[in-house]
Structures are given as C-alpha cells and as structure tokens.
Design brief:
Layout lengths: L1 E5 L6 H15 L5 E6 L1 H4 L8 E5 L7 H7 L1 H7 L4 E4 L12 E4 L8 H9 L3 H20 L2 E4 L2 H11 L4 E3 L6 H4 L8 H8 L5 E5 L9 H14 L5 E5 L15 H10 L5 E3 L8 H5 L4 E4 L8 H8 L4 E4 L2 H7 L3 E4 L4 H13 L1 H14 L5 H18 L1
Parallel strand pairs: 1-2, 1-4, 2-3, 4-5, 5-6, 6-7, 8-9, 8-11, 9-10, 11-12, 12-13
C-alpha cells in the first residue's frame, strides 16, 4: 500500500511529537510505501529513512490551507498514492484518494478557550479560531474516516458533528526510543537545574500558550510556599515568558507580569525549549509533574512523565483521567487552591507519591506506537480495498 501523509502543519507541540514518532515506525512496516509532505526544516530529522519519500514544501502558516487544497491533490496523483493521511486537523475538500483525517485540536471545540480569548481581548484570534473551528468541523464531513487520539475527544467530536465515522486510537509511546539519546543537557540548563536541587521540583512541559493555563499554576505557587513552609518549591518550565520566545501568536506578557505581581520570581525557572530527544533527562530531575490545562486531546507529556516514574497532578479533564487513570491526583482546572492542595498531598506523603509513581509506570504499557500504527494502517487498507 502507498500512503501519502500530509504533515505540513507539524511545527510544534503534539503535532511535531506525532510525526517524529510515527515516521520511523511507518518506515519499518513491511509492504508499506510512504510519501510525506513536510516543511524543509523537518526533513533533516528523517534523512536516515531511505524507504520513505519526502516532498518538501516551504509554506507559510497563512497560506497552508490554500496550498493543501489546491497543490497537494496533484502531488498525490503524481506519486500514485492509494490513501491520504491528513495529519493537521484539516482535510482536503476533494481528495483524489480515500482520506483519513487526524483530528487532535480541541481548541476549536473548547468553550473555555473562547472565553479565555475574550477575557484577554484577543478578538482577532477569537475570530480566526472560530473560522478554523468551522473548517475543522467541515473537514470531518470531507474525510472518509476521522481518527481522534482519545475516546474522550472522539466522543466530543461525535456529539458536535453527529458523525458516526469517527474512531479513537490512542497515540503511542516508546520508552526505549524516548530515552535513547544520552547526550547531556546544555551546560546552562544543567547549571540552572542544580540551583533547584533539594527543592520540591514541579515540572510543566509546554511552550507558552493559553489553553495550558499557566496562570493557574503560577497562582498556586505562593500558596505552596505557605503550605510547604521550610521547603523551597521550584516550577520548571520548558519555555520563556517573554515576547517572541515561543511558537505561535500567544502573548506571555500577562503571565510574566503575574509572576512579578505574585512575588514568585524566585520560584519559577524558565529553562526555555529543551530538545525533544533530551526531555527524558529533565523528567528525571523533577519530583512531581503538574498540568492545569483546561483542554486537551491526549497530552503526550503525561505519558512521558508517568514513564519516568513521576507522580502526576493534573486538571480534572476526561482526557486526563482516560490517560492517567489512578496514576494522578486531579483538581478543577482553574482552582489554584486545589492545585496547591494536591501538590502538598504528594509532596508530604511518601506512600502516596510512591503509589502514584508505580501506577504511572503500569499505565504507560497501554500506549504503543506500534499498536497505534497497526490500527491506523488497518483502516487505511480497508479504505484502499474499498476504493
């Protein structure tokens, strides 16, 4: 079978993590030929896979949708692909071959996200997201099958669209591949991490954006300082709360001001972006993983944290409960007080921390990229046979 993958949207976050993990497994699948459309910057990561063809397209974010709709169809015909995998939330309106759509962006369906944008006076982003949400909903009708990364999000999409052609296939995880790179963290990062030794180290892996709800985590810090009196607390961030330091158009200035206003500058460590291949070193230097996100579709860092033996404190979302089960403590997404309560429980109870850690290590066995790809290819082969 010849599969064409449109990964032009993979630039950061979960989309990039997905492509980085999927392509090596696709390349190792017998009887499968793969052509991948991607940006030139990503091509360097996959030069080792000689049995995968790449189409490099330099496309700006503003022109990507137009390019996909009017340029990709001819490329798909030229390479004689049998099935299209659209990996970026939007489907081709007139795909020349059967099409599987990967829908993994819950922002377009999140009422909390739209309220958040209005509270920040982000009216242009609100309108743009509404329009993209409409296109994402229509894309589900354009695709032959839509695949969501969790049952919780699949159920949300079914309720929103009324479509019965939506499947849930968990994203995978490969601990061996995740921890394979032994190169050390950058000296500056190592030096910064050493300043947090002996503290209660909370880790939050994300570039800055609104839906990960950084502000709730920041508001919990002065509460933790009081509740864990005598023990210093550090929040490790894999981003910088500075203009232009993060992908996308999200503005971190309000979060940076909140850090100053709360008087917690000494508790926040902005490490900046850490290469994905080295993230396992960072998980190994933390005590508790926290996420106050108010919407998610899968959340790869939760699986990465559990595989590293970290107890998890997560916002109470159906997706988080589906992924973590009893390996996490949960709190309402916007409650800094209850976030502080849950972290305090874990930080002060060795037995609880050990129980969560053990449960997390067990949970990670449920996620496999091989299983994910086998299920995806089963759908693709069925579509190809029907065509």
């Amino acid at each position: 079978m010849h599969l064409f993958i449109n990964s032009l949207a993979a630039s950061a976050g979960g989309g990039l993590t997905y492509i980085r993990n999927v392509i090596p497994y696709m390349a190792a699948t017998p009887g499968l030929r793969v052509t991948v459309a991607l940006t030139p910057g990503l091509r360097e990561e996959f030069r080792a896979f000689a049995n995968v063809d790449f189409v490099e397209l330099e496309v700006s974010a503003s022109r990507r949708f137009w390019h996909e709709q009017f340029v990709l169809p001819s490329l798909i015909r030229q390479c004689r692909a049998e099935v299209l995998l659209s990996a970026g939330n939007f489907a081709l309106r007139n795909s020349p071959v059967p099409q599987i759509l990967l829908s993994r962006n819950s922002l377009y369906t999140s009422a909390d996200f739209y309220r958040d944008l209005l509270s920040r006076s982000e009216y242009r982003t609100w309108l743009d997201s509404r329009l993209r949400g409409l296109m994402a909903r229509r894309s589900i009708a354009w695709a032959d099958i839509t695949v969501a990364p969790s049952e919780a999000f699949a159920a949300e999409l079914r309720s929103l669209t009324g479509s019965s052609r939506i499947r849930a296939i968990h994203h995978g995880f490969d601990r061996e591949a995740f921890a394979r790179d032994k190169s050390p963290l950058a000296p500056k990062v190592e030096q910064t991490l050493k300043t947090a030794e002996g503290c209660v180290r909370l880790l939050f892996v994300s570039h800055y954006n609104y839906y990960r709800n950084f502000e709730t985590a920041l508001r919990a810090l002065p509460l933790l300082r009081d509740r864990l009196a005598g023990r210093a607390v550090k929040l490790l961030l894999t981003c910088r709360l500075a203009t232009g330091a993060n992908p996308g158009a999200y503005r971190p200035e309000a979060a940076a001001k909140l850090v100053r206003d709360l008087g917690v500058s000494d508790m926040v460590i902005e490490l900046g972006a850490i290469p994905y291949r080295q993230l396992h070193h960072l998980y190994g230097r933390a005590d508790i993983y926290v996420t106050p996100a108010y919407t998610e579709t899968f959340a790869h860092p939760l699986v990465e944290a559990m595989s590293s033996g970290l107890p998890v404190v997560a916002s109470d979302l159906p997706v988080h409960r589906e992924i973590c089960g009893d390996a996490a403590l949960y709190f309402p997404s916007f409650s800094a007080e209850q976030l502080a309560d849950r972290v305090t429980e874990v930080a002060t109870c060795v037995n609880l921390s050990a129980r969560l850690s053990g449960a997390g290590l067990g949970r990670t066995a449920a996620f496999s990229w091989r299983k994910h790809i086998d299920k995806l290819l089963s759908i693709a082969r069925s579509l190809a046979a029907g065509a």
